[in-house]
Amino acid sequence: MRKLFLLPAFLFFAFASFSQKPKNDLVRWVNPMIGTHKMGHTYPGATAPFGMVQLSPDTDTIPYEMNGAYNKDVYKYCAGYQYDDPTIVGFSHTHFSGTGHSDLGDFLLMPTTGKLQLNPGTEARPESGYRSKFSHNNERAEPAYYSVKLDDHNIQAELTATNRVGMHQYTFPKSDEAHIILDLMHGIYNYEDKNTWTFLRIENDTLITGYRQTNGWARTRTVYFAMSFSKPFVQYGNKDYSKGQVYKGFWRKFDQSKNFPEMAGKQLRAYFDFKTTEGEKIKVKFALSPVSTQGALANMRAEIPHWDFERVKDESQALWNQELGKVRASLPTKDDYINFYTALYHTFLGPTTYMDVTGQYRGLDQNNHQAQGFTNYTTFSLWDTYRALHPWFNVVQPKRNADMIESMLAHYDQSVHNMLPVWSHHANENWCMIGYHSVSVIADAIMKGTYTGDANRALDACVATARQGYYDGLNFYMQLGYVPEDKNGSSVSKTLEYAYDDWCIAQIAQKLNRQDIYREFSQRAQNWKNVYDKSIGYMRPKLSNGTFKKEFDVLSTHNQGFIEGNAWNYSLYVPQDPAAMIQAMGGNKRFVPHLDSLFTMHLPDEFFAHTEDITREGIIGNYVHGNEPAHHVAYLYNWTDQPWKTQERVRMILKKQYQPTPDGLGGNDDCGQMSAWYLFSSLGFYPVAPGAGEYSLGSPAVKDATIQLENGKTFEIEAKNQSEKNVYVQKVELNGKTLTQPVLHHTDLAKGGKLTFYMSSKPKK
């Protein structure tokens, strides 16, 4: 009952606020609550485009570990916030958007009144700690702005942010016992030993500096901060919850718990006390740095040198309008506008800036470096984002994408493994997922001409990465032409993804006339054939003796040679050569019915019970849209004699998997990949094989759209006779000339022009 009541109330509140803004304000269409319920794993808080600070509410403190084992419930809190929760613990400054694993949640602030409580309490008994009940009726989320009423403390909390600084505004009641708590123990995917050290320094009665070191997904991570209050505190203190610290040195001569200007320990919670009048606003500026507290102070002074909260909000929302304005779309319904511009918003949340205003950043080697001529970025969820997010950037953010590649190459230079990033954040490689998909991002940018750096240097880094034998079965792959399942798990997925990445390397080598590299990696790109079992028509794990694994279930996701997918979905993963894959599977006559059945069959729950990334909401038949390996699959009909089925499947997926509600995403948004799929598909084209320099055409859901290219030109899409029923394309014209194949070349898009779809309710066979 609670959910059914609150959801319409929230949507009414959101629409009311939209109507009060100018019609050309695209921020009004963004609903950051989308994806905050169930599997989306997005956060609703305040951040700037690609911002280093993600200032957002956290709704629980569930630990990563319980009784010595992984606590499955923690998975809900990858972004710190779950829409169903009735309490808020506080507001922390770093979050991932849409990931399936997590970290961060640094520096949680919580304003309270009454008796000081330094423990967070529990959801069942929020009054036992500093957390507070709240209602979605009193909650508001926009780009660069979040507000909520903390019912238990009668405090209105408002948040906004620039790139490197979060700004809080707390409206207090009259109180002689007003507190702002800084919890340095709090974190996402937290456990008792995650903090390796924390430190605070009271510079004066309004300024605090310090740092936090953690060992989590990133095993060596240090974040520095500077925190400034708009009003002096009357007293302060802390409690150290550390256990078993044998040696404390001669600091024991001091009472460090109250009004002592230094605090250090593994498990600290600090507090700052105020006296407030009714309706008094206390503001906090909280700046981050990867380098030093001095860097954090410089970031604060550069980005928010004043105390005008509304000015920060307005300026950051102006930046969002500037970024959202890169695509001006006309859509059929209000829900479509919300879905479209929220997806665009989600794609511009990351990768995130990772350097001070001076250009300094912490490198993978744990030394400080100076970015020369580029913005250094972090948060590279490459197994997800190489598919559509980075290709999307090559359309609407090519300069940023080029800087992201420079950041990857800096990572390579600093890597003792001589490897490009796999999944990296905050000066750490966390090795999550498989493949070496930096090479896909690099290849796509080089082939599309959006990377103008040293392409030969980039190719050398790609080749070195692909030859690093001790990485994840690569020695076996290079020796045998496949990863053997008895030597290295998820072997089929790895073989298929390595083969695609190798094809990407070959494309760069051919363009640069590096023929030896081209031949080597063109041959490696054929390795997908080594795990295809033609006797059953599926990819299948092969053992080191050259035989296929006997016990095999094409529907199961568990111990079958695949990661986050089954043989049904992964057998369709040869994006570099769909025509050869279709031929191997029996040609049009056999392949089309096979692909049809993917979308229409029923996948019983037992077959994905062991994969927390996959739930029923993200599945259509046996097609798993809520995870990435099959994101290109609906477009494979374009390589058959029935391309109209791509058109109907794409429009079906758009409608079923994306809704303007908190539970509107059928799976993790995965740092914008799910949203990038939506945007490409809504515009009518999709990069099936990044690195190919072309897009496969589908069925646009927009009525028309204009993409503002960085070269000053515009590319327009128009869908004539567009409607919910008219999902089929009768013909497509590029600048008035009819296309004979369902393909759009990036070179044509980059020149500017117009792509016109003629729509109908009947397929053109």
From TrEMBL:
**Which BP terms in the Gene Ontology apply to this protein?**
carbohydrate metabolic process; glycoprotein catabolic process
Q: What cofactor does this chain's UniProt record say it requires?
A: Ca(2+)
Q: Is this entry keyworded DNA damage? A: no
In this chain the Glycosyl hydrolase family domain maps to 296-760
Q: Does the keyword Hydrolase apply?
A: yes
Q: Which GO terms describe its cellular component?
A: cytosol
Q: Which Pfam families match?
A: Glyco_hydro_92 (PF07971), Glyco_hydro_92N (PF17678)
Q: How does it assemble?
A: Monomer.
Q: What is this protein called?
A: Glycoside hydrolase family 92 protein
